[in-house]
Amino acid sequence: MRVKVRYFARYRSLVGTGEEEVEVPEGATVIDLIEKLKELHPVLKNEVFAEDDDLADVNVSRNGRYVRFDEILKEGDTVALFPPVSGG
Amino acid sequence: MGNNGKKVGISRGSFDVQAAIERLSNPKAGAYVVFLGRVRGESRGKKVRKLVYEAYEEMALREMERIREEALERFPILDMVIEHRVGELGVGEDTILVVASGVHRREAFDACSWAVDEVKRRVPVWKREVTDEGTFWIEGKRSVPDYHG
User: Which of A49, A64, A81, B82 has its CA 20 to 30 A from that of A6?
Assistant: First the structure.
């Protein structure tokens, strides 16, 4: 199945695009998608997920809501990866 | 951007603070607490030239609406407006506006303060600081050099 992935702020600048479509197996979770994105974009592995368990600083949303990493994705979902926010 | 009665908004132009207050106008309200954030000319010891804000707009609007609804549940206030700007903002320009209306001032002060903290914690908006010493992405409390800036 295909999901849309969006990147914001510094992550967009690192990956070099704001949006892409990615193929993942049926039943894939958010963390499965992240593993796939690290393969597709080594810069994410090196600059964002520098250690295996270094997920605390990465925000992930699914269809406009913050999600847990074990949530199961559906065809057509929009998943966004972004750094800690800094509005205000 | 005109907000035409909307209670949350992302805008490219400056705020109309008076219009935001009027959107909450209610004869029951004896208190309107306004928080207006502006670009400060100094950050972490560096002289700031401007801030460049960007947002994940669809989600930012939904998250601002959730904060507004949560504020109405948590505090006995009457209503709330939350607005944030995006784009390039110079020193002294408005960045964020929160207005809380209440029967009395105490709950309006509390709700306004809480909502500003929540916006800063979870609404997907980011700023880059353009300073005399280079450009930096601000990520929560961290500051990361922007090598492309």
Answer: B82
Closest Cβ–Cβ partner in A10, A57, A64 for B58: A64
Question: B35-64 pLDDT, tens per residue?
Answer: 999 999 999 899 999 999 999 999 999 999
How many distinct structural domains can be found in chain A?
1
CATH number at residue A33: 3.10.20.30
Interface of A with B in 32-61 (CB under 8 A): 57, 59, 61
Q: How far apart, in whole angstroms, are the C-alpha atoms of residue B141 and residue B137?
A: 10
The first and second tokens of residue B127, run together, are 């700023």
The whole-angstrom separation of Cα B34 and Cα B36 is 6
Q: Which residues of A touch B120 (CB under 8 A)?
A: 85-88
Q: In this complex, which of A9, A64, A87 lies closest to B59 when CB atoms are compared? A: A64
Q: Report strand pairing: B8-11 vs B79-85.
A: parallel
Cβ of B126 within 8 Å of Cβ of A57? The answer is no
Minimum-distance CB partner of B126 among A8, A65, A66: A8
Residues A13-72 pLDDT 10s: 999 999 999 999 999 999 999 999 999 999 998 888 876 555 668 999 999 999 999 999
**Domain at B8-145, CATH from 3.40.50.720, 3.40.630.30, 3.40.50.1480, 3.90.1170.40:** 3.90.1170.40
